[in-house]
Amino acid sequence: MLLKKQTVWLLTMLSLVVVLSVYYMTTPENPQSNVALVDNEKQNEKKADDKAPAEDTKQQADEKSGTKEDSKTEGSAEDVKKETAKNAKESAVVSSTDSDELFTALRLELNDERSQLKEEYQEVAASKNVTPAEVSKAMDKIDELSKLGEKEATLETLIKAKGYSDALVRADGKQVQITVKTEKHSKTKANQIIQLVKKEMGPKEVAVEFQPTK
């Protein structure tokens, strides 16, 4: 009888052990950990969603900033071009003005010299203290100056007829100084002018100077 009870008790204990084993095997080991894992995943997804718009916003801001910088750079380059063109135009105007002023100044200087010489010869011719030969010589000098001025004017017209903007001829004895305003010059053009001067004024020492028009 005692043996039977022990056997029943042993079987009961074995059954209880089996039931407990099955229970522990089928029950999750750490449900709270799983819940925390799910929560973490949701939080990470939320952070990713929040971060994505922020990155998009930053990218859009960078693109706008880049566009502004590009526009600013293009604007600066355009301003530089305009300023350069303006300076070049002003420089050309100044250069042209300087050249015109040079020609005007040279002509005035030449006219003043010729006028002064004529006055001196006229004073000699009108003086009562000079001989008739001196009077005749003074009159010849006045006539020479007048003819020289006419030849200079003729040469200037002929030179400008060859396409030059302006020309100034100054003859003094055996020397003739030619100043020509032109965009381009060469030895060939200078030689052509020299031959033209010698044809009109005879064998002279001719010097040709070119002045830029711009």
From TrEMBL:
The chain crosses the membrane at residues 7-25. It comes from the Bacteria. Keywords: Membrane, Transmembrane, Transmembrane helix. Residues 39-89 have a biased composition (Basic and acidic residues). The keyword Cytoplasm does not apply. It holds the Pfam family SpoIIIAH. This is Stage III sporulation protein AH.
